[in-house]
Amino acid sequence: MTTLYLVVPCYNEEAVLPETTSRLTKKLDEMLAAGKIGPESRILYVDDGSRDRTWMLIEKFHRETPYVTGIKLAHNRGHQNALLAGLMTAKDLCDCAISLDADLQDDIDALDQFLDKFHDHCDVVYGVRNKRDTDTFFKRASAQGFYKFMKLLGVDVVYNHADYRLMSRRALDALSEYREVNLFLRGLVPLIGYRSDYVYYDRQERFAGESKYPLKKMISFAIDGITSFSVKPLRIISNLGILVSLLSIVGLLYALISHFTGNTVAGWTATVASIWLLGGLQMLCLGVVGGYVGKIYSEVKARPRYRVEEHLKK
What we know:
It is a single chain. The chain is of the alpha/beta class. The protein has two domains: 4-212 and 305-312, Spore Coat Polysaccharide Biosynthesis Protein SpsA, Chain A; 232-301. Helices cover 49% and strands 15% of the residues. It has ten helices and eight strands. It has helices spanning 17-33, 54-64, 79-90, 111-119, 137-152, 169-175, 185-188, 215-229, 232-260, 268-301; strands spanning 4-10, 42-47, 68-73, 96-99, 124-129, 161-168, 196-201, 308-312. The longest helix is centred in the last third of the chain and has 34 residues, at 268-301. It is elongated, with a radius of gyration of 25 Å. The model has no long low-confidence stretch (mean pLDDT 80).
């Protein structure tokens, strides 16, 4: 019998946890009755340093429900680190693990299809959204633009896939060998290279609580994804520097010709505009290079990506 772990990162999710636990418990009961999973299957909640009653509720459901277990991180480490902590905790206890959000916007009825693909010898199964009708126009446009931009930079990401995925124990063992501190699992998992497939589903509206991914976090997450998996921005800077240098040479030749032909005119506007243009380009380039230096700084320190404070065990 397949032992399945559902890995659910949580940050201030007390509003959704009772309903989430009820729905996931019911779903596991159905799958157990159908013979798709074994009795050792679990819901593994990961409390990412929540400030509300999230951990208290996890402990409560752990006492009341045989399916529920959980780990509590010592402090908030962000969604990707919390997800990794859950997956690394589950990898030695399960045959496969499926990661999903606590708000259950990802359709849990698709879990059967994930397991069907797993039983068909797939090590990684990606949950892919059929459409983005529930998103605002801005979120839909920015998300689609992000995936296309990542592809343009040569990063192997699955279009319209977030973190709803199944990974076999073999795939989880492979993931544990990747040691980078700056995590972007959507780009990291495809590097594993084992057999994979897709499950398509419709994303639901959040039934309670607020999104934990405001615009600021989404932008930061996108920058992490780009700088962790592509050096093309550095090549773009090099090409931009060459282009600006060529244009500067052309401008210098024009200035010399104008000087010797007596056509020079005091061009305050042109001078100031060129200074601002070059200054802006320099600041932009320094910012991009600084972003990569910052990544190197984080990696060479090799600090722990997370620390588990408590682990509920059956």
